[in-house]
Amino acid sequence: MNRTLDQAAAVLGIGPRKLRNQLREMGVIDHEGVLACAYRDKGLLYTDTRQRWNPSIGSWVSYGVIMSTERGIEWLAEKLGITVTKKERAA
After folding, report:
1. Is-above-0.90 flag for pTM?
2. How far is CA 5 from CA 14, 59, 68, 76, in A?
3. What is the DSSP letter of 33?
4. Are 30 and 24 in contact (CB under 8 A)?
5. For residue 49, is it within any domain?
6. CA-CA-CA-CA dihedral for 90, 40, 66, 52, to nearest 10
């Protein structure tokens, strides 16, 4: 099951801001929250491109959401020194 970073933070038992701050410190995401090139295409984290309609400009706007795979959550837990017990209930 793939999860957003907010859902991954819930599985890891930490807040979303704390997770993002730690990912910035590790160099996994940059100051804008974009996934670093070195961590793409490894089967851990990826960017899911999405669109929404913006009525004020009358056009579609694209944005990316960083997602984590199950392997990615295990990797994050290992890097952060966190033990994950129940993934299913968290998110």
Report:
1. no
2. 11, 27, 7, 11
3. S
4. yes
5. yes
6. -140
Q: Is the pLDDT of residue 46 over 80?
A: yes
The pLDDT of residue 89 is: 55
Closest by CA position to 87, among listed 3, 18, 19, 21: 3
Query: What pLDDT band is residue 9 in, cutting at 50, 70 and 90?
Result: very high
Is the residue at 19 inside a domain? yes
C-beta of residue 24 within 8 angstroms of C-beta of residue 31: yes
Domain of residue 37, residue span: 3-84
Assess if residue 90 is contained within a domain.
no
Would 91 be classed as within a structural domain?
no
Q: Which residues contact 44 (CB under 8 A, 6 or more apart)?
A: 68, 69, 71, 72, 75, 76
- How many domains is the chain built from? 1
Tokens 């984290």, located at residue: 45
